[in-house]
TrEMBL record:
Residues 302-321 are annotated as: Disordered. The lineage of its organism: Bacteria, Bacillati, Actinomycetota, Actinomycetes, Kitasatosporales. Keywords: Antibiotic resistance, ATP-binding, Nucleotide-binding, Transport. Pfam families: ABC_tran. It comes from Streptomyces vastus. This is ABC transporter ATP-binding protein. It is a peripheral membrane protein. GO terms for molecular function: ATP binding.
Amino acid sequence: MTAVVVEGLQKTYGSREVLRGIDFTVAEGEIFALLGPNGAGKTTTLEILEGFRSRDQGRVEVLGLDPGMPADSRDLRELVGLVLQDVAVEPYLSVRETIARNAGYYRAPRDVDEVIELVGLREKQAAKVKDLSGGQKRRLDLALGVVGNPRLLFLDEPTTGFDPSARRNAWELVRDLRDSGTTIVLTTHYMDEVQALADSMAVIANGRIVESGTPATLGGRDSAFARIRFELPPGTEVSDLPMPASATTEDGLVSIEVEEPTAVLHSLTDWALHRGATLGRLTVERPSLEDVYLDITRSFEGEPSQQSVGAHGHRPNRSRT
Ligand SMILES: Nc1ncnc2c1ncn2[C@@H]1O[C@H](COP(=O)(O)OP(=O)(O)OP(=O)(O)O)[C@@H](O)[C@H]1O
């Protein structure tokens, strides 16, 4: 089943066209990542899906419901979990009290101890919210997102401010949630996060979805040329190589670009071994997800962007507490 359907979604703030007709779908049980430069409209899209923001045009369906309809939006509250960028929580309550209080808002919440364990806050369960570090606070946000046992979880930049080990734990948690059947829609600026988590993804730039696919195939990444780089053995020239190669670059390496590197590597290493030489700093790389992502978004930088006229309004208060 499809968990989220977005078709021709448009949103304008004043006369600033932020979404110019975007389309994507999220399959039930997958982790879907929405990416894009600052101000591209990711949060706006998420807020529309969550029912916190109205849309101007287009069709939106979340778990078969329309978040733009008040009655559907109320039903969605039970089915959907949110981890937003600015969750307001009571600073003088403890971690446990905060999670227990939120559990009380749902008909069939998860067990509070299980949630505390899940987000790794057992040691901090008696601490007041105001005394938590930034990363611990974000883990509490995650706990509040999952305590209602949602079918669909929205994560807006879930690991911003986490240390490397807390990020790994959060990824583990997100994968566990997916494996237990929760659909997850997340936004992030970290390509390693997308690589580690996303089953599918879409890039939004200049008000449109400009690429979509999987982390492995985005922007034709899987069929892109491989780049072989190495140090020329002492006493040899680029022209001695058994195939065409670029001259040494400023980092002292020779580079060869090929569609399929197996045969080229074979003749290259054969060539070196026959001379009793080695190919220092030898690497074979295809463009990383980050390379592809930057290429895609850069190609939209020159385009006329969303028009900007008039003052910004205030975001609605999205806190549930
Ligand atoms: N309430 C509002 N009124 C007017 N303009 C707004 C409002 N909310 C957002 N915007 C503008 O809409 C554009 C998209 O904002 P949005 O927060 O959706 O982007 P984003 O992709 O989530 O960005 P970031 O990566 O920085 O979080 C921005 O230019 C922003 O300034």
